[in-house]
Amino acid sequence: MIAGALVERTTRYTVVGAVCAVVQNAVMIAGGLAGGHYVPLAVLAYAVATPLGYLLHCRVTFRVAPELPGFLRFASGVAAGFPVYFLVMAALCSG
């Protein structure tokens, strides 16, 4: 029973992560095709994907009500990885 619940939640977590990755990449690719620079596009992608990810994880993955303190923790956790993301993007886009 516990193993089944763990597999189910892991599956939901993975699906939500995939949705967020697709949204993030869609913003970056569409913005790039439109001639946008990767720096503001990265900020826009963060602004779009982070609230979406939080809401989906609340509703789908963990089935809890969204709350502002939880969102702020989630957003700060995502932001903690932003410098690494930015450095990788700078290396790939600027050479």
Features:
95 residues, mainly alpha, 4 helices, single chain, 86% helix, 0% strand, elongated
Count, helices: 4
How many strand units?
0
As a percent range, the share of strand residues is: under 5%
SSE string: HHHH
Largest sheet data: none
Mass-distribution shape:
elongated
Question: How far is the first residue's CA from the last residue's CA?
Answer: 50 Å
Report the uncertain regions: none
State the helicity in percent bands.
over 70%
Mean pLDDT: 94
User: Could you tell me the radius of gyration in angstroms?
Assistant: 15 Å
| Structural class designation | mainly alpha
Characterize the structure shown.
This protein has 95 residues and is mostly helical. Helix content is 86%, strand content 0%. The protein is built from 4 helices and no strands. The protein has helices at 2-33, 38-61, 68-80, 82-94. Helix 1 runs antiparallel to helix 2 and helix 2 crosses helix 3 (68-80). The longest helix has 32 residues, at 2-33. It is elongated, with a radius of gyration of 15 Å.
SSE topology:
Blueprint: H1 2-33, H2 38-61, H3 68-80, H4 82-94
What is the compact description of this entry?
The chain is 86% helix and 0% strand. The protein is mostly helical and 95 residues long. Helix 1 packs antiparallel against helix 2 and helix 2 crosses helix 3.
